[in-house]
Design a protein that fits this description.
Blueprint (H helix, E strand, L loop, with lengths): L1 H50 L7
Length: about 60
């Protein structure tokens, strides 16, 4: 029975490492690019509709 528990624990640890690398290498970079892009788009859209270009407030 100890052998079965050891194999299950190794499988769990392996899947945790795979999930960790997926999150740090794939998911977080995609989310950060998406968040920065969405923020930039919202600033551009607000300038286009309401505020105008910066520095042209005369």
């Amino acid at each position: 029975m100890s052998n079965v528990v050891k194999q299950s624990d190794e499988h769990k640890r392996s899947s945790e490492w795979k999930a960790f690398f997926f999150i740090t290498v794939v998911l977080f970079p995609i989310l950060s690019v998406g968040v920065v892009g969405a923020y930039g788009f919202s600033v551009w859209f607000m300038q286009m509709l309401f505020f105008g270009m910066p520095g042209h407030g005369g």
